[in-house]
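Handout, section 4.2: multi-component inputs.
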Amino acid sequence: MDYQVSNKAKIWTTILMIVGIVFTGIGIIAASGSGHLGQKFLGNLLSNSFFFFSIAISAMFFLALQYATESGWYAYVKRVIEAVTGFLPLGIGLLIVTFLSLTFTNGAHIYMWMDPEVMNEGGSHYDALSAGKGAYLNKPFFWVRTLAYLAIYYIMWNGFMKRSIQQDNSPELAEEIHFKNYRKGATFLVFFAVFSSTSAWDWLMSIDIHWFSTLFGWYVFAGAWTSAMVVIIILLLYLKKLGYLPKVNESHIHDIGKWVFATSFLWAYLWFSQYMLIWYANIPEETTYYLMRIEHYKLLYFGMFIINFAFPMLILMSRDAKRHAGILTFVGLVILAGHWLDVWIMVMGGSMGPTASIGFLEIGMAVLFLGLFVRVILVKLSKSPLVSKNHPFLDESLHHEI
Amino acid sequence: MHKEATIREPLVIGHKTFHEVTEDVCKPIEGKAPKTWYVLFAIAAIIGLYGVGCILYLLGTGIGTWGLNKTINWAWDITNFVWWVGIGHAGTLISAVLLLFRQKWRMAINRSAEAMTIFAVFMAGMFPLIHMGRIWVAYWVMPLPNQFGSLWPNFNSPLLWDVFAISTYLSVSLVFWYIGLIPDFATIRDRAKKPVAKKIYSLLSFGWSGRAKQWSRFEMVSLVLAGLATPLVFSVHSIVSFDFATSVIPGWHTTIFPPYFVAGAVFSGFAMVQTLMLVMRKAYNLEAYIHTKHIEYMNIVIMATGSIVGVAYLTELFVSWYSGVEYEAYAFINRATGPYWWAYWSMMTCNVVSPQLMWFKKLRTSLTFTFLIAIVVNIGMWFERFVIIGTTLHRDYLPSSWSMFYPSHIDIGVFVGTIGLFFVFFLLFTRYFPVLALNEVKTILKSSGQSFKDGDAKTPAFSIEEQHLADVKMKPSNNSDSDGSDVELNNDNK
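Output:
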């Protein structure tokens, strides 16, 4: 049975988008007098486009990981993972729009290094430390890197999607395509291993221009991966509730539940490693990042950590919880909000500092993006058969039992 | 029922019955050891004893016998410690993490990898102990109530966290390993002819009878322990990395250290497993169980973790420049071009370049090449720790106290001695313990055994006669003597 986007889903995603637009409008009007409107708007645009893009690319990472490790259990739910990657083209588009806006506004006080007044000697805000990074942080090189990441992601994504359909239609090529996916999956992982770190430096770490942390890229990646697993499980549970994918059993759900649990731990481990080492060494250049966030976002920042760590740890620890649709959806939605907040604090804490707060504009843009994101992945899901055919491990997946 | 896709390569080559699996694993324990075993054992024991001698001399004289000086106050001691702890990571990763990921190929190697882990952690633990100089007060690292007033260890120190992390890791690994051994000890017990051996193995096997209920509990305990051991795999080496990263020394203080140390540990651990496995499969005729596919899988793990380590090296290098901190930048320039450049470039070649060769299927399925690379990786990982520790310390903030490190013969003797002792333990293990988790391998025989997979198995895994004889044998009063899946019978189905 192929999936059709239900009217209910269409109405709800439209409502989300309309509410988002209305709220954003109110937020823009409210902020128009403050003189920070451009920075506020572009900051939120950056944080949301990155957050939703990162979910799509992490879902693709997960898919590539399944290919490269020759996993079998996922074959029956492959299309669900693929649907989540379906936001990738739009996500790439939104990121490019964001970066173009930032480039033409000389960084809009978000990317200080885009501002010639900061980087050029004799400028009104010249900063030697920032200028020292000019060889890496400059507009042309930034665009070369950004376009390289996005182009390679897009080309490889296209390949994965094309081969997935091709495998459905030509049983005689199924094995050949499978081994091709195995090789391409490994290739993607190589690119992603480098790009996930460097793109996090370029897009996010460079906002706090003086600050640096070697772990930053892996930390951002872990958060995105967790969010991707959450979206995958929620989408799967939604389809299951509507009666699709009858052969998805408790074991499949349990397995993805374990991934949510494990990636949350990975994220918390990396959060702790970065935080604790900086706290312990107490070097001013490094502690400034956290001091600012603790001073101005204490509740949000530590609240975010508790949500993203304690929630999955305490609630998803038991085996039964990882098989329970209600619990998984609840925990999933909460930590998805938590990871959104994490990215938001990364961007806004670094750019606007004490003047940022969560209001109409922030909620409005997040809701707008969420509506768009859900709509796009549902449409993507309806474009191809819900279950892939001819996958060599499909039989393993159908008989999956743990 | 579980299915296994036809395109997956079989994990047990050829046609093996349950009985043959038992025979293959138990033979070396029951028979006489070959001459080579004695020769190897004697060599390892001599080297080990020399190490023990060096340690005794060191304890009697003081750690001044090491080549340490005021500037380089940590060198080979901690290098060796971290190296051995790192090696001790593979076993638990294989048994716990791969169990959670349902990687069935682990069954061929988990037993000896876990044994190796435990022995490696023994070796690692020795270095902090002897570094104390006064080893007889080693128990002071424990937070014990004492008569000295409020004398407590420094809970803020990562060195103390190490004590807890490593002792927890060792205990859990030991329990995990032992639980897995129980059914196999029972099999050996049931086959043992000599009364002393029978007595010992029956004590070791805790009265295992192989009933369904025991297996069910066995599997449950394995999963629980795997769940406990997985965070430990991360915590141990993370905390080891804290020893350095919590400081304010350029080259030590960097946030990527915890995950990168974990990856490096798995990397070196797998290299050591590879080294041992390649010899063992040959010496004990286990080629059907540990075959090219297993070696290839391990090589892929080595390649993946080696790449993670490589990305981390480059990240550190980049950020040392990006940070704009001149001390940080100098630490790395000094590593690459200073007096210890050869250590840095050995590390880079061995750890970053050599595992990349595993991208070629031809190379990663070549046993000779694998053996070579495994040794290269172990050398590289030793150099990595030396580069991190030695070259960072030798030029600190104060150029007037810059110096070089020259190992004394005691430094060398203690290090080489631990390698000897490690092999003494490992050789004893291969002699008296089932080196393969034979009862676990049997569980995958029908789904992953070559002949069963191809459908050309001439006889069932468990023939009718065997079944019948097992029933007959179990009927007599002492049914605790049989593990239910094996009988003392040479079947003629070979």
